[in-house]
C-alpha cells in the first residue's frame, strides 16, 4: 500500500470527491444495469451540488489521499435515532485491492466512536455479494432487506456495533 493520508474534505475538494464517487460507483452501476433513468440517486450519477448539500446538512466527509491525489472517499451521517451511517464509501477502481477501503472503514468507525456513536448502519445493493461479503469481513452483520419501488434492486441493510 502506498503511503496515504485521510483528511476532512474542504469545499474546494467537493468536485474532485464527487468525481471519485462517480468513477467508483460506475463499475457497480454497469454490473447491475443502473442508469440515471432507473436509479438517479446512485453514486455513479452523483451531482456535485448534491454532495455540497449533504455536507451543508452536516454529513462529515473524508478524503483518502495516495500519490498526492484523492483516491478514496467516505461520508458519515447521523440518523434521528442516534445511529450513524457510513455513506458513499468509494475507492477509485485503479486503487482498489490495496487496503484503502478497509482503511476508510476503520477511520470512519474511529470517528463515529469519538462522536459517541455505538451503532453504524449501511445500505447496499443486496445482490452485490462481493460487497456484502467485504462488509461482513469488516465486522458488519446483515439485518434485513427492503424492496423500494423506485429502485431496480433490493436494498440490504447491515449494522456494526461499536
Describe the structure.
The chain is α+β, with helices and mostly antiparallel strands and 162 residues long. It has one domain (4-118): 3-Layer(aba) Sandwich (Aminopeptidase), CATH 3.40.630. The chain is built from four helices and seven strands. The protein has helices at 14-31, 48-56, 100-114, 129-137, and strands at 4-8, 60-66, 69-78, 84-91, 119-125, 141-147, 154-161. It has a seven-stranded mixed beta sheet. It is globular. One of its GO terms (molecular function) is acyltransferase activity, transferring groups other than amino-acyl groups. This is Acetyltransferase (GNAT) domain-containing protein. It comes from Acetanaerobacterium elongatum.
List keywords for this structure.
GNAT_dom, 162 residues, Aminopeptidase, alpha+beta, seven-stranded mixed sheet, Acyl_CoA_acyltransferase, 32% strand, acyltransferase activity, transferring groups other than amino-acyl groups, globular
Could you tell me the strand content as a percent range?
A: 25-35%
What order do the helices and strands follow?
EHHEEEHEHEE
Average per-residue pLDDT, rounded, comes to: 97
Q: Give the number of helices.
A: 4
How large, in whole angstroms, is the Cα Rg? 15 Å
CATH topology: Aminopeptidase
Assembly state here? Answer: single chain
N-C termini distance: 26 Å
| Biggest beta sheet summary | 7 strands, mixed
- Stretches where pLDDT is under 50 for at least 5 consecutive residues are none
The CATH architecture would be: 3-Layer(aba) Sandwich
The total count of strands amounts to 7
The CATH homologous superfamily: Gcn5-related N-acetyltransferase (GNAT)
Amino acid at each position: 500500500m502506498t503511503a496515504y493520508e485521510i483528511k476532512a474534505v474542504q469545499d474546494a475538494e467537493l468536485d474532485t470527491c464527487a468525481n471519485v464517487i462517480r468513477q467508483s460507483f460506475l463499475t457497480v452501476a454497469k454490473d447491475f444495469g443502473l442508469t440515471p433513468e432507473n436509479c438517479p440517486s446512485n453514486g455513479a450519477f452523483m451531482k456535485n451540488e448534491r454532495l455540497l448539500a449533504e455536507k451543508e446538512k452536516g454529513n462529515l466527509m473524508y478524503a483518502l489521499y495516495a500519490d498526492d491525489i484523492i483516491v478514496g472517499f467516505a461520508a458519515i451521517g447521523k440518523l434521528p435515532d442516534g445511529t450513524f451511517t457510513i455513506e458513499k464509501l468509494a475507492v477509485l477502481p485503479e486503487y482498489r485491492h490495496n487496503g484503502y477501503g478497509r482503511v476508510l472503514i476503520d477511520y470512519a468507525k474511529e470517528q463515529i466512536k469519538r462522536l459517541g456513536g455505538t451503532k453504524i448502519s449501511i445500505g447496499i445493493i443486496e445482490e452485490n455479494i462481493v460487497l456484502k461479503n467485504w462488509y461482513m469481513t469488516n465486522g458488519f452483520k446483515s439485518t434485513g432487506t427492503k424492496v423500494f419501488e423506485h429502485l431496480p434492486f433490493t436494498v440490504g441493510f447491515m449494522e456494526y456495533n461499536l
